[in-house]
DNA sequence: CATGAATGAGCCTTCATTCAT
DNA sequence: AATGAATGAAGGCTCATTCAT
């Protein structure tokens, strides 16, 4: 991890902001320089990064490391004794995490298809990990015994519906469903709880 | 003339394919011409479309009209007498619709943020409409009486979890959750049914 | 001289009009086709002309032949007995001739520099000829005997001041001098007369 | 770097030269770059000018400012006591000014019709101003009292004939009249003097 | 470090011209 | 004779990147 000079940080800030707003290809080095307070078009960025791709990597990595710092899985082991309360906390936590990484999500949606390792692993971190942890937690907390398949399917459904509410808003450009977070969470908790107590029979 | 398909159609085909693969900005007119069997760089496209934007519009519109043709909502009014069976058919239908519009979804994820009227309305059509219809249907089919808020929240959750499974795969570049469609649908039907029979209390 | 079909004529009309308005380079074959009522971009023009250059030539030639038909030099040999009256008629005639060839003048101003024979000879016809005839006439009509040099210089001055009033208006885009034609002609006649009666001593 | 002149200046030089030779539309950015010693087609010009139009503006403005620097109207107030001598100096001065702005004249003839504010004001400066000053001067120097109309008409005639001798040569591609500058000036002075001493009666 | 300047590559678009129908 | 379609060439402009100062 290279030094973290003030200029370097300003460049990453500018890049992440503009990449999220306009996409990677839609953002010129010149624009990033301007946003970072460097002379536009002078290529000052290249004293800090090898290439535009390198800058993208630095940006994504910084967002991911922030995510790591933020990620506080204590809720997963906190036993409130009340499953409903725990689920509510969990839902809020997941949504806020997605919100705080909205910029990263936007970048990934625009560029993940280009098949770059870096971006794929970012998706893993931001989505799959949460999902896996959720599945594990479900298996351990459910009153009834869940098979792996059941836990996986329930977790996929649960993560998916939360993720969706943010992806449609963040990536597609506006909330697609007129449902408040409060209602969404209440319904999510209610539905997830029922699935945990009365899981489906899977072939 | 490598194909007998009218040139215009071949151009739209090529454009939709490449836009989905590489994004709008990432696709050059030259590349589209090559893919369509025209001389690359000769601008032959401009005998059929006014501009690159115009071509994007044509592509999105064609996908949308295909969607209209495809959209067969008969399942929404078919009374099989068995709610579980109806939900299963509905889930399969929604997933297959999303699958057949994967390319459009990919394009929208890349470009919808640019704030173009056209793309926004495409999102409406592909996502919001289905959601609205689902909410309406739920209110009419549920055994217990649902408030608007309840129906909306349940529909948002239900649509969201299906949409998510396709968005993560299609947009982000690979399935994020190791769950088969079969299990996903079974769990979705089970969970949705329970929500309809025992809806959450919403403040 | 090729046949004069209606279509061919319409094309030449359109070309001359547009060349004068937008210049040769600024006028596309497509625009000429549209103006002439042909399908734009279909290249229909090439059934009548070998190339865009050829069309320019045809246009200039047609204007020149019109000029020939128009050119009525009778005023040059009409002896009204009154030099002042003859000069007045001559001035009016020259100005009206320039006016009726405004389009040609505009084309020449834009394109004559390209060194094309055709255009150079057009300039000859429209300007030098008049000048030469004027010089000849002066030598024959002056009360005092004029040397060639004197006649040439006086004719150059006289033609020049008339030409100027049209060139500034027609070519440069608006009248540069706030002087009415009436005043201009009166002064021109007055001045020319004095020069003829009392020519300068030339070294 | 073939020359030590600042690049920007070399670009303007190249542009003015080529615009005069081939017209604005007829001159490609690539050609200007080549002429200025930049890599053709690399767009190096755009580090110095926003657009081709902007470059035209810079060129015209530079020529105009040169004109301002050059324009030395002292001859207009110098009282040599001898009107004939003053007129001779004036004629020489105007012709040399037009000669030194031949390139600008050529550009204006090609492009002034496009209605650009900048070019119109350039025409004003190079033509109308001289004319106005000439008219004013005439009113003040004439032995007899001149009405405004008389002064205007005489000035228009006088400026016109000088302008013409340069416009035909410079714009149309060659001298149209076989008259030496010496003879032209002598005749012009002679004629103008007679008009000032014996102005026409204007209705 | 930062900047001014330059450059190779590429992009979207226009256009004169050709040709089969 | 006219059209729909195609094409080679070029044009204006952007951009990631490099380098001397």
UniProtKB/TrEMBL annotation, chains A, B, C, D:
Ligase found in the keyword field: no
Residues in the DNA-binding region annotation: 30-49
Matching InterPro entries: Homeodomain-like_sf, HTH-type_TetR-like_transc_reg, HTH_TetR
One example GO MF annotation: transcription cis-regulatory region binding
Keyword terms of this UniProt record: DNA-binding
Annotated SUPFAM superfamilies: Homeodomain-like
Entry-linked Pfam families: TetR_N
Residue span, HTH tetR-type domain: 5-67
Superkingdom classification of source: Bacteria
PROSITE patterns tied to this protein: HTH_TETR_2
Annotated PANTHER family: HTH-TYPE TRANSCRIPTIONAL REGULATOR PKSA, HTH-TYPE TRANSCRIPTIONAL REGULATOR RUTR
Protein name (record): TetR family transcriptional regulator
Organism: Herbihabitans rhizosphaerae
């Amino acid at each position: 991890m290279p030094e973290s000079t003030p200029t370097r940080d300003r460049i990453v800030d500018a890049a992440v902001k503009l990449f999220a707003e306009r996409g990677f290809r839609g953002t010129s080095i010149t624009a990033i320089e301007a946003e970072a307070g460097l002379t536009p078009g002078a290529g000052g960025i290249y004293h800090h990064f090898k290439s535009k791709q390198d800058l993208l990597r630095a940006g994504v990595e910084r967002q991911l490391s922030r995510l790591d710092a933020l990620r506080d899985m204590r809720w997963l082991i906190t036993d409130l004794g009340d499953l409903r309360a725990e689920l509510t906390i969990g839902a809020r936590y997941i949504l806020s995490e997605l919100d705080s990484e909205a910029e990263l999500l936007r970048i990934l949606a625009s560029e993940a298809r280009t098949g770059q390792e870096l971006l794929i692993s970012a998706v893993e971190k931001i989505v799959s990990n949460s999902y896996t942890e959720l599945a594990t937690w479900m298996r351990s907390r459910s009153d009834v015994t869940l098979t792996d398949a059941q836990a996986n399917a329930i977790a996929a459904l649960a993560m998916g519906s939360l993720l969706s509410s943010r992806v449609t808003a963040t990536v597609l450009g506006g909330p697609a469903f007129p449902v408040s977070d409060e209602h969404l969470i209440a319904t999510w908790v209610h539905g997830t709880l029922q699935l945990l107590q009365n899981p489906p029979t899977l072939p």
